């Protein structure tokens, strides 16, 4: 289990995402989002080297909730410059390289393990705590497709998926799908 440190990050995750997010093709806002953390969970790296977080950033200007899985590394990931969100100084661990996790092989492996039911989601802000709000409809296809722009769907789906809650622009807790199996062909709102 990964340890969650109560410390500082400079710049913060929100500050990094405010610069990075508007450059993504799936972004639906203007050049200056007003982001807040709206939800998330962690997935443990069995080797204990890479931090993995499934993070929801809500743009208060538009009400759009973005699912941005991120990995945190103590050194640059080889051949992944295009996936770099930025670097930050962690108050305990020192320099951290923050990546768009969809391009990180450790995340890809662990997201597939989560979808297959072989690992459990962990609480975003507490060490050694399973996040029971994350629901998994098990699929062992070996791949997970990340849903970037979240929509309220609940759990009324067919096929393999991972759903979890986040807080919307009205301050309500809503639920939707964050991952689907095999690029999403199996998941249909029913």
Key structural traits:
190 residues; mainly beta; 7-stranded antiparallel beta sheet; 4-stranded antiparallel beta sheet; 2 helices; 13 strands; 37% strand; disordered C terminus
Helical amount: 10-25%
Oligomer: single chain
Instruction: Give a short account of the largest sheet.
Output: 7 strands, antiparallel
How would the global form be characterised? globular
Strand order of the largest sheet: 1-5-6-4-3-2-7
First-residue to last-residue Cα separation? 36 Å
* Rg, alpha carbons: 16 Å
Q: State mean pLDDT (0 to 100 scale).
A: 86
Strand residue percentage: 35-45%
How would you concisely characterize the structure shown here?
By secondary structure, the chain is mainly beta.
Task: Produce the secondary structure layout.
Layout: E1 9-10, H1 13-20, E2 35-42, E3 51-59, E4 65-73, E5 84-90, E6 94-100, H2 105-115, E7 122-123, E8 135-137, E9 144-146, E10 157-158, E11 161-167, E12 173-181, E13 188-189
Antiparallel strand pairs: 1-5, 2-3, 2-7, 3-4, 4-6, 5-6, 8-11, 9-12, 10-13, 11-12
